[in-house]
Amino acid sequence: MPTAPQTTDELYQALQENDRRPYGRARTVTAEELVDAAESFADPVPLIHALFELQEAYTYGAEPRKSPVVFARLLTLFDERPDAFDERLRHTLFWRFKWVAGALRALPEIPLAGLRQWLTEMRDRYEKAGLGLQPYYGQAYLLAAHVGEDTDLAYELWAGRTRTRLSDCEACEICERALYHLAAGDDERALRVWEPVLAGKESCQEEPARSVSHALLPLLRTGRTDRARELHLAGYRGCRRNPSMSREVGRHLEFCALTGNEARGLELLAENRSLFDEVDSPLDLLGFLTGVEVLLQRVELLGHGELPAAGYAGRTWTVAGLRAEVRGRADDLAARFDARNGTTAHADRRRARLDQAPLLDALELTLRTRTLDDAAPAAPAAAPAARTAPDVPEPLPELLRRARALDEQGHPDAPACWARLRTLVTARDYSHPDDPAVGPLGQLRADLLADEAGRAGEKDEFAAAADLYEEAAGLYDDAGKPAHAAIARAGALVAAAQVPARGTGGTEARAAALTAAHASLVRLHEETPGLTPYQEARLLRLRATALGLRLQTSGSEEHVAPVLAEVDLLQAFATRHDIVGQISGARLLRAGTYALAGDLPAAVTETDALLDRLKEHGPAWHLPRTLGLRGRLHLGLQDARAAHADLTEGLRLAADWPADTVGTARLHGDLAETCMHLGRPDEALRHLTRSAELDLRHGSRTDAFCAYGNAAQLSLDLGRVEDCIALLDSLLSEPDVAAARLDDRLVAQLRLTRARALHAGEDLKAATAEFAALAAESAGWDDDPGSHAMIAAETAVLLGESGEFGRARQAADQALSAHARAPRYERLSNCLRELARLQAQRQGPDGLADALTFLADAGRVADEARAAGYQAHGRSLDTALAYEHGRVNAYAGAYEDALAALEKALALLGEPGPERGRAEEWAECVRLAGAVEGIYLERPVPALARLDAAVSRLTALGHTAETEPLTSLAARLRDED
């Protein structure tokens, strides 16, 4: 806190600001400082408010030891100055007797007699104040359940009594009743009791998150797996990283462990690592550590005890090491509670949780399914694993001969051979054989560099690829292999031409670079003696590729013929020497060239012929890519069914080869797009996530995150909000994001989608915080002010929904400033109109002036759009603005102005026609005008005439649905008249 409050008004303002902070150390420290400040005032009331805020910070910040101390001060103040406690403060005081009872139960050092003495104090105080004793009996039952003795009697004494104003909220009491039945082994009855909370009908500060965490396993045991999955996703989000809900986090970890989601459990554990050190409540810590141990025990039993795990700060943990540490601490805590209580209840409950067998082998919890193998750190030299592992011989000479032979063919098994060779060569004890068939070590190192360069190029890491190819060429020269060096230099030329040039005009510069690269390739080809047929074919392929990339970059018609000429050369040469892979490659290039030139039917004809040849002559591994190309061509020709058939067959055939060598990820991505055209969004979502998984596994991280981002957006569009949030939470916790190795704009897009999902999930506070952070970051995007305008506009609306109109105005001004540099007419107009509506609706006449200022800004945006010739994609900006003037004035009670604005909107719209959207907008204007005129201005006769005429007009046009609100309003006016 920068400066201590000097007046009571400043203190109360500081208390309000602190109340908006999340629970945690920062809020608690500020609350402690505010208590110190409040003690300087003579009036005790500010101190009472400050002490209540501090007790709340301790309670929900998981510091139970300090809560009773603060409450003791409040009781002393109440006894000394009861007049300082108004009705609300008095109610709060008696309510928080229950908080202290809970805090004392959580501390094993407090004797059982002390707990009972506190309950006696609570009962005596309630009786003296004339308050009902149901809350006292509730606390007596909770103590009995905690100790594990006489719970049935204590439950009946509590549950059978009538609730009072000081009873726990309905949601909390429902949870305790359900837990009583759960402890008795009656899952079905517990779930029936829980239903109002699980369905969201009852809630509070801790609910439904607390109930959800307890209900997960009963839901599984009773076969309600879909409901369990849904509640896990929503419930976990409500408790993660929250010290006061660490027990609930532990139950979510347990749920993951018992449903085959151990990898997700480790991911969630890492997200909650801070709880190991932040939870000060021994009872909460016991619950959390037991859930952690259930997870770690399961992972270790599956043979993954050496996996890294997130644990106590200050050292690196493995699963096995952390499990041993957690077990010791949790056993000690359980023993301390049982020693205090004189029972074995806590040790017994711990043992029961740890003895559970998995309830399901595998329950798909999120769109990003991961296994423990995925969680293992990758070996530095590991290569992507083929689905069908090739036969990789172990003796080095044989392995190297096979790798080189497969590489000449372009065979998909070649990378696995190179990966094995790389492992052997980089070993400390490697000794290179003196074998002419193997060649010198320099040649082998060059081979490995060339393979690595090819993989870098496939990931669009062109600068790295060019450098690796050049290094390989140098080693080939040293080894006396000039032809091999030429192939490597050719690869470097094509890769270097694709490196984005800085400070130059993108497309033209890249096309020029590819033209130069082609000329250099031709010279290199002409000047290199001793080329074997396969090497010459590879150079011809690179020449054609360079020109194909140029055409793809420029889209220029004049660049088509040169590509086809090079392709003809390649095909003729490959046919003459019977190099089947290059014959197929030439025909693929020709088909792709026809497609780039816009001649899709010719491209399909070429792929048809190629497929016939591949089925007869091979190579078989070219079939998946060729079918993928034909599928994309069919999609371009609007034949989604044919596209789906080709892509599905391509995916089936791709299963026979290593996924990264035959474009399996691309096939899944194309199938996702095709499924969207066919109206199969759920199938599209599965293909998107599979494409992303494959890209991630093969190191194409940017492509993977893009695909996952598309999957998140699609899941949000489908209304699967929790799936979207869970997927994005998983992605945003990746090391690449934390270390800022991923493109910052891509990360921002993922966060933007997440913020929208939070908003859709009605978590307005979290959504607003994320939007505000994105708006602050995007303000520095000088190269993309349009995106900042969009983000700031959405931020402003969320702030308006939160009632923070001052901050909303600031965000709207940021959006307008960015809009001036990169216009976003429709987005800004929508934002400003919505802010005006929100402010008028929330504040009535008091908010009218500010609301009209928003509308004036929207008017200027509409004027700019009109002057620029902009056509809105949705409603006309002018008619929408006139309608909003009407609605805003109506909210503020300025009914004549509202009616005039609506008349203007109707004049701008004109009479409705056959278009449904326009008819709907016109009908809404008529409805609101009729309501203002007939109800608020009390002129029902002209209002009814207006409504009846509109109904007749719409009915004649066939817009019967649009007439329903008008006929309903007319009936109301007639009834009132």
Q: Could you give the distance between the termini?
A: 61 Å
Overall average pLDDT: 93
Rg on CA atoms, Å: 35 Å
Note poorly predicted spans.
378-389
Neighbour order of strands in the largest sheet:
1-2
Beta strand count: 2
Percentage of β-strand residues: under 5%
User: Structural class of the secondary structure composition?
Assistant: mainly alpha
Taking the sheet with the most strands, its summary is:
2 strands, antiparallel
Q: Which outline best applies?
A: globular
Number of helices: 48
- How much helicity do the residues have? over 70%
Would you kindly provide a written description of the structure presented here, covering whatever features stand out?
Strand 1 and strand 2 form a beta hairpin. It is built from 48 helices and two strands. Helix 25 runs parallel beside helix 27 (533-554). It has a two-stranded antiparallel ribbon. By secondary structure, it is an all-alpha fold. It is 72% helix and 0% strand.
